[in-house]
Amino acid sequence: MTNLNQQILKFDYDQNFKDQDFYVSNSNEHSFSLLNSWPKWDKNFINLIGEKFSGKSHLINIFLEKHRGIKINAEDINNDFLQQIKIYENIIVEDLTEKINENLLFTLINIIDQDNKYLIVTSKIPIVDFKFKLNDLNSRSTNFILSQIEKPGDDLIYALILKNLSSVWNELSAPIMASENELKSFTSEPKAAEVALVEAGSIGEDLGFEPGDKLISINGIKPRDLIDYQFLIAEEILELKGAPSKPSHCCLVCIVKGLYVLLPETAGLIIMSFT
Fold first, then answer.
1. Which of 50, 181, 202, 258 could form a disulfide with 54 if both were Cys (CB 3.0 to 4.6 A apart)?
2. What is the pLDDT of residue 223?
3. Distance CA 208, CA 41 (A)
4. Is residue 2 part of a domain?
5. Are both 137 and 37 inside the same structural domain?
6. Residue 248: which domain range?
7. Any idea what the Cα angle at residue 202 is, between residues 198 and 206, rounded to 5°?
8. pLDDT-derived band at 266, boundaries 50, 70, 90
């Protein structure tokens, strides 16, 4: 009997918390939208809930890139910190646990309330489920807007796999050594994708697409790599801008399905299809 072993894909990556590297999915859409709606919140207190590695810290860092604020680990709150927050409008307390100094947390919440500031607390469980010894703190915890980051669904896992595979393909297609002139030829501007095949009987064929035509943009956006391409073609209506391979063709701007595109090598690519 053949011994079947599961193969694990180990992706090397540099952890970062940039806005463009956060993928919005069904599991985190509510939290993402809530933080982006600041300061139009119903209350000044937000509790961001999720397991470790669920993306809480990523969301917090994106928020702080856009809005002035200060963050601290819950266990590090002290009297000095309560003095420091006076000049900040947004205060972030990360990783709330039962080890928190309840008196300091209660004082912090009072300061936020009195000075009309904003407080975001991250935790693994809802703050209302903490059994604080201070009854007043239990009462204050009910004033928080709760936002749960769920476990990642198939859509998010799929996006992350594509992103990592795209990075691997880019590395494999990159030159090991390049001269100064070759380096100058590289550009961050995405290269146009090339139509490799038009499906028979498709709208693409009816509109006159032919292999060799260039696909410049999808709905006004130039795809940089496979992950961009996958997200862009998921729209129900696709407006494609292209360049003809033959002088007799006009510039293509249309709605297309059934069109196969070979993305440029620098994008790490393969043949994909619109669905």
1. 50
2. 74
3. 50
4. no
5. yes
6. 188-273
7. 90
8. very low
The residue among 148, 168, 203 that closes a domain is: 148
Torsion from C-alpha of 250, 253, 255, 256, nearest 10 degrees: 50
Which has more confidence, 89 or 219? Answer: 89
Number of domains in the chain: 2
Strands (E), the chain: 45-49, 69-73, 90-96, 118-123, 145-148, 193-198, 214-218, 240-243, 252-254, 259-262, 271-273
DSSP for 38-102, written as a single string:
TT--SSSEEEEE--TTSSHHHHHHHHHHHS-EEEEEGGG--HHHHHHGGG-SEEEEEEE-TTS-H
Peptide bond into 126 cis (omega under 30): no
Is residue 8, in this structure, part of any structural domain at all? no
Q: Is 131 exposed, middle or buried (0-12, 13-18, 19+ CB in 10 A)?
A: exposed
Strands of 118-123's sheet in order across: 69-73, 90-96, 118-123, 45-49, 145-148
Q: Encoding tokens for residue 122?
A: 């991250």
How far apart, in whole angstroms, are the C-alpha atoms of residue 138 and residue 236?
47
> Per-residue pLDDT tens for 126-166?
999 999 999 999 999 999 999 999 887 676 666 666 666 65
Tell me the pLDDT tens digit for each residue of 159-212: 666 666 655 444 444 444 444 454 444 444 566 677 777 777 776 677 677 777
pLDDT in tens, 234-255: 666 777 777 766 654 434 333 3
Q: What is the dihedral of CA 178, 181, 183, 189, to 10 degrees?
A: -140
Per-residue pLDDT tens over the stretch 24-50: 888 889 999 999 999 999 999 999 999
Whether the CB-CB separation of 120 and 91 falls below 8 Å is answered with yes
CATH number (domain holding residue 263): 2.30.42
